[in-house]
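Need a sequence for this fold. Nothing fancy.
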């Protein structure tokens, strides 16, 4: 991941344990993590980061295009959920949104979330 004019990458980690250690050491404003990590997955990383660094925002960057995983990330304390397929176009937007104190979710979830709001969870 590269820095840009507005954001500086202060560390990169190869797994969940390293993500936790680096974040606690460096105190970043935003931690970008993935759900599919070992030995500690991104949801557990998110929960632990929220306890250790409550002021830090956690952005889940993932391939998991499912409302159930989005819900699990929200329960874990994530501030945002960005699909990897949207990252090139929307990563900076997601960072702006989180930095401004708002939550961010990939736009592809809009229809399914609105459907669930009005119709309840799907029975599939």
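Here you go.
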């Amino acid at each position: 991941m590269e820095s840009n004019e507005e954001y500086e990458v202060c560390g990169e980690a190869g797994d969940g344990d390293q993500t936790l250690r680096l974040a606690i050491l460096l105190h970043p404003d935003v931690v970008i993590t993935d759900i599919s990590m070992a030995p500690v997955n991104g949801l557990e990383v998110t929960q632990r980061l929220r306890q250790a660094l409550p002021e830090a925002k956690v952005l889940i960057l993932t391939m998991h295009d499912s409302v159930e995983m989005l819900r699990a990330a929200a329960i874990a304390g994530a501030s945002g959920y960005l699909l990897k397929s949207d990252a090139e176009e929307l990563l900076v937007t997601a960072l702006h949104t989180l930095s401004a104190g708002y939550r961010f979710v990939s736009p592809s979830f809009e229809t399914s979330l609105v459907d669930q709001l009005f119709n309840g969870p799907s029975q599939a």
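For context: Residues 84-99 form the longest helix (16 residues).
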